[in-house]
Amino acid sequence: MKIKKYSIILLLLLAPHTTNAQYSFKAIIKDKDTHLRLTGVIAADKHGHGGASNDSGVVIVNIPDAGTDTFSIMYLGYDTITIAVTLPDAAWHEVDLSAGEGELEEVTIVSSTRTNERIENAPIKVEVLGKEEMEEENTIKPANIVGIIGDVSGVQIQQSSAVSGNTNVRIQGLNGQYTQILRDGMPLYEGFSGGFGVLQIPPLDLQQVELIKGSASTLYGGGAIAGLINLISKKPTETQEAVFTVNATTLQEEDVNAYFAKRSKWFGYTFFAGYTHQNAVDVNGDGFSDVPDLSTVTIHPRLFFYPDSKTMLAIGYNGTFERRLGGDMQVLDGHPDSLHQYYEKDITQRHTGELIFERSLPGLVKLTVKGSVSSFNRDIETNIDDIKGNEVNYYAEASVFIPQKNNSIVAGVNTTGDNFKKLPGSDSIALNDFYNNAVGAFAQYTVHLQSQTTVEGGLRADHTMSYGNFILPRLALFHRFNDTWATRAGVGLGYKTPNPLEVQLIDYPEQDLQPLPSNIKAERSAGYNLEGNYKKEIDEGVNVFVNHAFFLTQITSPVIATQLANDEVFFSNADKPITTMGFDTYLKLTIKSLELYAGYTYTDAERKYLSQNQFMPLTPRNKVAFTALKAFGKKWRASLEGSYVGVEYRDGYINTQPYFLTSLMIERKFGKMVTIVVNGENLLDYRQTKYEQIYTGTITDPTFKPLWAPIDGRVINLSVRITPFKK
Fold this sequence. Notes:
Number of helices: 5
Structural class: mainly beta
Low-confidence stretches: 1-21, 101-108
Mean pLDDT: 87
Largest sheet: 22 strands, antiparallel, barrel
Oligomer: single chain
Number of strands: 42
């Protein structure tokens, strides 16, 4: 599994300063050659106090005690320098950084927890896939981030449709509707868009991906029962950026992506544009497409304004336009007849407007106001039906971050909602138009009881239009016993309002979905986690890190979908809960230029409302993954990955077979501007269709089984990345 390097990652809010203590180290960070101020530079002492420079290059680190202290100034691509300071010190230090020949381990700024803590000392665990991983994924799977999210321990990527390729993200054994997906802290990808949202996000457009597993409803509201995935967009730097990627695969996929960014004193911009084309492919020769015919265009321009050193305003638009066509290959080739008729066409459009305003106030207080509106149109056409619909998702928030000597407070209010409507020209369906809305207030208090212990408490109060009020407390604790051992624990409540269009393990046709009954209730949850960490420098250049985490989640009054013999799908609350429990074990070993990662996840997920066969379908109880990454000088790099997926259980079918997947990546750099990558996925060519036929019924009217393994088989891709302005 790819994950950020724990030794230097700082868990910092995107705020210019850290806590307001008695003594402060203050500095202005610049590039030594260009004299431009640098954003995101880390200043940290050996005791774990740290901060990141803001958009004006200003960093302030607050220290509880007077005396001599030493600060390391770190920035990716620059030489690290050390400054000794005797506190109290009222002077501003001007620091000029020189570009280094070697690259530092990447420094990542994390925003999902909104607090200032080193990532290894934070009460709530955040796993970060940073810029390095995004750049690598851009050359392996440039169309979307599905593959890289699936590399994370405890996360399962579940393809729910053999025809369209629709996919959902499952965390700790729970279905996809319990995972909240955010873009810059704002939920956009729910309901009618199903699993298409995560399939339409290119990694080149992202700075990083942040994952929190388990209950995370305090800051972001209902829906984050299994966890959340926060997609962080890139910001411009004062150095001109440009990246071009061209990719082609053996499955007849072609990708072209481009990213540009630049910032001046008062103004900045980022611009992403991408195109993906995929031909329909029948991998197993059964006459039906295993990979759909696909064309996707994505554009994402953002403008940034900096009226002064304390203010930032960002305005952006994101547009995604996609056409998917799958089904009978003879129909897709334009030759339907009385026997060959089956197809499904999905035409989608997403238009999203976004606004983020940040202002630094006296006392290192930070005010943030942000909002987004997303309109998603989907036209689902088959040889029998044509369903057209529109869903509008919106989110607005105002929050404040207040740092103090040994504690900090985050508080705010927000509103979120979605509105689904059938569009003219749509065939008649039973599902009615519907509207969900929630208004909430939240507060989070983080306190350092002593230098080795941090406690964090949170509380959210939400009012929903249709399902009443919800009070969601959360408590988390981190304690470091010594430099080697540490522990983390937490408990939190959550809820989920019913939505008949939420992604399921099976893609039920929209024409079969029935309206929600008037007596249906919202789902409620309680989540618990407990973990231990061990880290040790065994020798110079040899480091080991081990994390062992237990989890338990219970969902009461779960909303379940029941399909009758006439194919109609009804929704109801079950009288007994869904429970999922288990543990993750993660190991990272670094030996000079060799990095080894290994993870094992045990998941026991059950539907207690059933009298028998209570297992959660399509959830492997045992899953193992490993990665070996080796750099050969400055030009060559290679990685070998593998994963073992254990037996899964299915309703109405025999148990699945365990299987093993492997992949190999080789990277070659030509100077600093050109990188060529050859990558092979599923090298052993394991496919579900080798084990069984995935459809029943006739060619004219097929019924597809739930998918538990890949159906696209072995894939080799070749990509070229060009960065013309890289120094």
